[in-house]
Design a protein that fits this description.
two-stranded antiparallel ribbon; alpha/beta; 167 residues; four-stranded parallel sheet; elongated; single chain
């Protein structure tokens, strides 16, 4: 049998570029912290198109300033919207884009149709299709049962509410 070795011990010290493509779970919150970043190859690039909170924002900024990371790119922030003084706005060697960089026009049309169907079901008191459900009655449901784990990986989001224009 092939022994199971955590991916970090096999790859992190050898890769020039590491991309993050995993969901945010309590287990992945701040996965890329000072400890993980210090195990990466010095001068590597980190690309995060997953969720902002998978990276510890202060540790990423420190790794860029020290040269441990050569660059950081992403299209996700935590919290969102990012406050004016968010450390990623002023850290060196970074590139940030909106979180729609990979969305095609046909995908946007499907999103819109799905949102419309969900809203119609809600207002007409009809059940929402299982593949559209993430949470129902405070519990994971539908597709959410398979895509997420229980826990609070969004703690700290309250910070973003201070910057909302909807209040």
């Amino acid at each position: 049998p092939i022994p199971c070795v955590p991916w970090q011990s096999q790859t992190s010290g050898h890769c020039d570029v590491v991309t993050i493509n995993c969901p945010l779970h309590p287990e992945t919150e701040h996965l890329f912290n000072e400890k993980m970043l210090s195990k990466m190859k010095k001068g590597a690039y980190l690309v995060n198109t997953a969720r902002g909170k998978i990276c510890n924002k202060d540790d990423v900024a420190a790794a860029l300033k020290s040269g441990q990371l050569a660059g950081y790119a992403g299209d996700v922030w935590f919290p969102q919207p990012a406050p004016r003084d968010h450390v990623w706005r002023s850290m060196p060697h970074h590139g940030m884009t909106p979180h729609v960089s990979g969305t095609t026009l046909s995908a946007q049309a499907r999103y819109a149709a799905g949102v419309r169907e969900i809203l119609e079901c809600h207002f007409e008191k009809r059940p929402i299709r299982n593949e559209y459900l993430i949470v129902q009655n405070g519990k994971l449901a539908g597709a959410g049962v398979h895509a997420y784990s229980e826990g609070n990986a969004t703690a700290g989001s309250e910070e973003a509410a201070k910057f909302s224009t909807l209040a």
